[in-house]
Specification:
Helix content: 55-70%
CATH topology: Non-ribosomal Peptide Synthetase Peptidyl Carrier Protein, Chain A
CATH class: Mainly Alpha
Largest sheet: none
Low-confidence stretches: none
Radius of gyration: 11 Å
Oligomer: single chain
CATH architecture: Orthogonal Bundle
Number of helices: 4
Shape: globular
CATH superfamily: ACP-like
Number of strands: 0
Strand content: under 5%
């Protein structure tokens, strides 16, 4: 399973949304994810990949694809 698919699963479970609406272009607002859902998803992803997502980086995520790309890059650094 790719990083993108794993993150899609996490967001889907936490925000109780159908995976089919979680596209790379979709914003969290478009997915009807509230701020608590977003924070919980960030924490879950941080724990899964043993990475840190600084608040200033998280604020730059315009859509799901930005989130995935950041996690992918940080996870690759871990090897």
């Amino acid at each position: 399973m790719s990083v993108e698919e794993e993150i899609r699963d996490i967001v889907s479970k936490i925000a109780h949304i159908d995976k089919s609406i979680i596209t790379r272009e979709a914003t969290f607002k478009e997915m009807n994810a509230d701020s608590l859902d977003i924070v919980q998803a960030l924490v879950a992803v941080e724990e899964k990949y043993d990475i840190e997502i600084p608040d200033e980086e998280a604020q730059k995520f315009n859509n799901f694809g930005d989130f995935v790309d950041f996690v992918d890059k940080e996870a690759a650094k871990k090897g």
